[in-house]
Fold this protein.
Amino acid sequence: MDDGHWNAQLDNLRIDAARLRESIEVSADIGATENNGVQRCAATDEDKRMRDVLAKWLGELECELRIDEMGNMFAIRPGRNRKLGAVMAGSHLDTQRPGGRFDGILGVLGALEVMRSINDAGIELERDFVVVNWTNEEGGWFAPACMGSGVWAGSIAKEWAYERKDRDGKTVFGRELARIGYMGDFPCDHGKWNIEAAYELHIEQGPILWKVKKQIGAPEGIVCLHWYDVYLEGTANQVGPTPMEGRNDALLAFSEMCQTVNKVAHQMGDMVATVGEIQNYPNSRNIIPCRVYFTVDIRSWNDSHALRAWRLMRREFEIVAERRGCRIRSEEFWKVKRASFDKRLVELVLESAEELGISNLRMVSGAGHDMSEISKVARGAMIFVPSIDGRSHVEAENTAWDDCARGANVLLRCILKTSRQKSRS
Ligand code: GLV
Ligand code: MN
Ligand code: MN
């Protein structure tokens, strides 16, 4: 990387670790759960409260706040040369149901802290600096995940996203986004932006950094993510008089399919596969279950490997369904191909960590992120910090405050270096 006019002020600049912690703690109170987690799904009242706080914080900085048609929030701090591509950093403020205090949140509030620190130091960057909060990364209440960044990158149609139903099937995403006042009018379209580089600071959400005791991870990309929906139909009946032979028990058929998902993932290797959601009807202790809906999530570094696994699972599902006298229907709900990050930006993350004396590791992301979408249309990279005990998507999700600060300092350095770089090469 060409460092442009790198100087001692930039070299010594650090974020305010206490202020970053304070912001994360304020966020943790919005949608706080009993066990120290957060439940703040996109387009809910909690999401609105958090967005309002972010907007207030951004209003205190020298930046323009732009909200697009998907509710993605962009804070733009003008650079010296507005013709140059911008540097972008952010993640998401929505959580799982329930989720933790750091997933996504560190990426948005870490980027905010970077902007605050650059402001405090009175530094004029060469390029615009954009802090972004992507809408509905989790898909916890309105599936799929990465909705805001997906529409922005052109992988999801906006109207289709607006029509997604909540998990209770009572309302649709577009209506709720408008209700909370965050359906903006700026086009949700990456084509309206000139982005030189995009970064996402995030907790690892897995055990690698924690196990090998490294402080920063630089993923080279994100595994592919395939989501399938499966619907089974059997026959309901009174459990007492109905003999065991000849039943069409949809839940029993499901239990074999659940084993199949696990078995195929083990047999094929280099992948993970999970049944995470199941709905059983009528879900009564004295009625034979007649309908089951379940999800399959498959992830691998190799897209065709994941696809082969799904084909194998589906074939076995059909055999089980036939034997159990159940009808089966399955469909692909969502598919994100493996994302490969920009090699030079990945190097810059590693190099920045090294220069700050922070131990680091080149790795791969097993979790999906907004960067899966962003990196399809812009040069992107991520900065990982360790998840204590490798736990995430749970209330107990935790990351040491020092690690949060290290991650934000690496992000700061990447932003400073990228925005002072005079030209693309
Ligand atoms: C995103 O949160 C994922 O499911 O990896
Ligand atoms: Mn996340
Ligand atoms: Mn998540």
Observations:
- The pocket of manganese (II) ion (ligand 2) is lined by residues 92, 103-104, 137, 202, 369 (CB under 6 Å).
- The first strand starts at residue 64 and ends at 67.
- The CA atoms of residues 92 and 104 lie 5 Å apart.
- DSSP finds 13 helices and 14 strands in the chain.
